Amino acid sequence: MDHAAEVRHCDMLVTRDPITADGALLLKTYHCVEDRLSGAGLRLVAEVAANKVVVSFPLRVMNGRAAVFTRPHNDALSRLADERGWAVRRARLSTEEFVDVDKERGGTEH
Questions:
Q1: SS3 of residue 84 by DSSP
Q2: Quick check: is 3 in a domain?
């Protein structure tokens, strides 16, 4: 079975080229994007042309303390999903929390 794939390297905060995908993985990067430019993480999730966007947050920062940014970012993603009618599911591992945004399925599942 032949599957076409493409890997792109670009600064997603400044590029104006449309980014399309079946799914987008923003693993342990969303909070960095937000730190760099407030609102950019939400804009990225909203504008990436993917039906599924998985965002993950570390539960601890490099010095071992609890990551205090996780909850506010999770809340912001939930509000965005509610506004757009997208479904949201969450999962947690010992080191990471995941937010699965499904743009095709309406209604949040929090």
A1: helix
A2: no
Mean pLDDT of the chain: 85
Distance CA 103, CA 46 (A): 9
What is the arithmetic mean of pLDDT over 16-38?
83
Q: Is 44 within the bounds of a domain?
A: yes
- Quote the domain boundaries for residue 50: 23-102
| pLDDT tops 60 at residue 5 | yes
What CATH number is attached to the domain comprising 70? 3.40.50.150
